[in-house]
Specification:
The chain has about 80 residues and is mostly helical. The protein has one domain. It is built from 4 helices and no strands. Helix 2 packs across helix 3. The longest helix has 22 residues.
Length: about 80
């Protein structure tokens, strides 16, 4: 796995959505690559900060929440490389 491949999968890695070979490859790359380690730690820390800040915030209206989640999923799907036959 190279840096680009790791960075394309980093969101899934952070979310705990990877299993098997992709998870192993991400862990191995992260162990070896200082650049990706810094990017990963920055993203992880930012997410943790947002979660802490959001814990005391007012909840989003359901329609806004659904729209944001739909946009995130659409962008995640469009950024994945096409699978090869």
């Amino acid at each position: 796995m190279n840096c680009r491949q790791f960075q394309l999968r980093m969101s899934e890695f952070l979310d705990g959505d990877l299993i098997g070979k992709p998870l192993t490859e991400c862990r191995e790359h992260l162990r070896k690559c200082a650049v990706c380690q810094r990017i990963f730690e920055s993203c992880r820390d930012t997410i943790a900060r947002f979660r802490r800040d959001a814990a005391g915030a007012c909840p989003l209206p359901a329609a806004l929440h659904d729209k944001v989640m739909h946009t995130i999923q659409s962008r995640r799907n469009s950024s994945r490389p096409a699978s090869r036959p």
